[in-house]
């Protein structure tokens, strides 16, 4: 099942294991159980610290849990963790023995304060690119928490449960037979959602002070995408002390599938590029603070004081903002009500749920038309809705879309409302702007692809923003506030491309260094 080159890589990955990690398998008569046993035994063959044993229990589907020092860790896999979830298995083994990348002390302290005896079920698909991030975060939470059970469930094995819960998107998180989240989510937001869903034990000790001073740096880079990585590397190479604050290295790149226009790289994918950015940043003495968001920046005596949402704070001589952008929402009635039950943002992740069904794609730019082309190979019918009187996508994409027999286009359409029956989406209401007439169309799903919103809200009272919320910068990345620079998709720089963001990050770093030299001379 696993090829020889991968097995050799795993030998190296698991070489650091010190204690035995057990993969405890349930008895199952399911035809796929033999494939699960084959995979787990092959993984175990790469290290004498990994063992496979039978629990003596039974399950209608392939299932196993991870145990450590004779005790369950709370991590349960229901299904065969192949595809994108194979990495989740490998990281779970490493994290169980404390050898993977651990949560920092502040995040761990918050996890430990969650109420006890929590069970979370993550319904996933092996083709879902957003699922591993959520799965891996919850696995780490389970290990830190001590009485959390996290069940990773391949929805393909439990279609009755998927139907009963009304799941039409992944990952979908369920507690007490009720879905409390669906779709991609950052680790910070995920932890906040768990705190709101399950509650916090206020009597538990606070292990990390919330007002911790993280120190002073010559330059602080906010954001960990291509622009941020470039800015940090260019700055540290000038011999300056550099810190980086980010939710996660890679930023929006993590959600990009195929990348074919990064010059000198014929083809790569978002997660792979994000890993390479991480590796490059880690090769320099850059102080990285992950899973953090900036709340506010203000200037005092020429020094930038930065407050974090976590309550922590730090200071810097200069700040380079590279916080990128996030997917824009429709902000119409019914959109949030049916998230994960007919409303989706990732065609690659959620498209398979709509096989043989009729869906809409909102947005006629490149991302929308590309999504429609991909979905056309899965669904019965796809309809693209565009607000303007013609599609904005590149001609080659539009021509491809028009050639598809099960794809159609509606222009001059303003989305008004997502309509459902309480369980799932059934209709989309829109205004035909050319006739000023309200129309409804029957369908099963709505994929939103209407562009990006700059992550600049924390700067609205600090620097000048455009009417679209972009940070206004000059030709060197300077903002309206001396000592604050910006680069990448969060700025007014035209053309939101990875290669441009990297160049703009380098430019902003060089400008900050240049200004520093003039200031000190």
TrEMBL record:
Its cofactor is FAD. Pfam families: Pyr_redox_2, Thioredoxin_3. One of its GO terms (biological process) is response to reactive oxygen species. The keyword DNA repair does not apply. Keywords: Disulfide bond, FAD, Flavoprotein, NAD, NADP, Oxidoreductase, Redox-active center. FAD binds at residues 218-233, 479-489. GO terms for molecular function: flavin adenine dinucleotide binding; NAD binding; NADH-dependent peroxiredoxin activity; oxidoreductase activity, acting on a sulfur group of donors, NAD(P) as acceptor. NAD(+) binds at residues 358-372. InterPro entries: AhpF_NTD_N (IPR044142), Alkyl_hydroperoxide_Rdtase_suF (IPR012081), FAD/NAD-bd_sf (IPR036188), FAD/NAD-binding_dom (IPR023753), Ferredoxin-NADP_redctase_2 (IPR050097), Pyr_nucl-diS_OxRdtase_2_AS (IPR008255), Thioredoxin-like_fold (IPR012336), Thioredoxin-like_sf (IPR036249). Disulfide bonds join 346-349. Residues 217-505 form the FAD/NAD(P)-binding domain. Binds 1 FAD per subunit. Residues 124-193 form the Thioredoxin-like fold domain. One of its GO terms (cellular component) is cytosol. Belongs to the class-II pyridine nucleotide-disulfide oxidoreductase family. Homodimer. This is Alkyl hydroperoxide reductase subunit F.
């Amino acid at each position: 099942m696993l090829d020889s080159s991968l097995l050799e890589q795993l030998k190296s990955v698991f070489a650091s294991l010190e204690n035995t990690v057990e993969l405890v398998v349930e008895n199952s008569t399911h035809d796929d159980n033999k494939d699960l046993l084959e995979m787990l035994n092959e993984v175990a063959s790469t290290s004498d610290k990994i063992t496979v044993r039978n629990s003596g229990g039974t399950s209608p589907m392939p299932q196993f849990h991870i145990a450590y020092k004779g005790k369950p860790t709370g991590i349960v896999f229901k299904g065969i963790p192949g595809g994108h979830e194979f990495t989740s298995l490998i990281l779970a083994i490493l994290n169980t023995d404390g050898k993977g990348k651990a949560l920092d002390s502040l995040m761990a302290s918050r996890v430990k304060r969650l109420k006890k005896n929590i069970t979370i079920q993550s319904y996933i698909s092996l083709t879902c690119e957003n699922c591993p991030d959520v799965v891996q975060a919850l696995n780490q939470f389970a290990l830190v928490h001590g009485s959390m059970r996290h069940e990773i469930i391949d929805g393909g094995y439990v279609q009755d449960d998927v139907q009963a819960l009304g799941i039409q998107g992944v990952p979908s998180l369920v507690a007490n037979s009720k879905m409390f989240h669906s779709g991609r989510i950052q680790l910070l937001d995920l932890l906040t959602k768990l705190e709101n869903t399950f509650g916090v034990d206020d009597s538990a000790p606070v292990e990390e002070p919330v007002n911790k001073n993280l120190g002073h740096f010559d330059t602080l880079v906010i954001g960990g995408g291509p622009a941020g990585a470039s800015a940090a590397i260019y700055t540290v190479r000038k011999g300056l002390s550099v810190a980086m604050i980010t939710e996660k290295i890679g930023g929006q790149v993590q959600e990009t599938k195929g990348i074919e226009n990064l010059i000198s790289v014929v083809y790569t994918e978002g997660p792979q590029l994000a890993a390479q950015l991480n590796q490059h940043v880690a090769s320099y003495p850059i102080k990285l603070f992950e899973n953090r968001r900036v709340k506010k920046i203000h200037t005092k005596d020429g020094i930038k004081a930065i407050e974090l949402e976590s309550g922590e704070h730090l200071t810097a001589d200069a700040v380079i903002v590279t916080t990128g952008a996030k997917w824009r929402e429709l902000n119409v009635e019914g959109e949030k009500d049916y998230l994960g039950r007919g409303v989706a943002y990732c065609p690659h992740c959620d498209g398979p749920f709509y096989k043989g069904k009729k869906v809409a794609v909102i947005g006629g730019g490149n991302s929308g038309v590309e999504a429609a082309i991909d979905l056309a190979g899965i669904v019965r019918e796809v309809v693209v809705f565009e607000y303007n009187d013609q599609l904005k996508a590149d001609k080659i994409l539009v021509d491809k879309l028009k050639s598809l027999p099960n794809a159609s286009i509606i222009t001059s359409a303003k989305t008004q409302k997502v309509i459902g029956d309480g369980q799932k989406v059934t209709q989309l209401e829109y205004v035909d702007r050319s006739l000023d007439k309200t129309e409804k169309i029957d369908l099963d799903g709505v994929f939103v692809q209407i562009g990006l919103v700059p992550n600049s809200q924390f700067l609205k009272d600090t620097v000048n923003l455009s009417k679209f919320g972009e940070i206004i910068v000059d030709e060197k990345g300077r903002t309206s506030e001396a000592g604050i620079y910006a680069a990448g998709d969060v700025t007014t720089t035209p053309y939101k491309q990875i290669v441009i963001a990297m160049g703009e990050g380098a430019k902003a770093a060089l400008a900050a260094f240049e200004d520093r030299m003039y200031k000190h001379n």
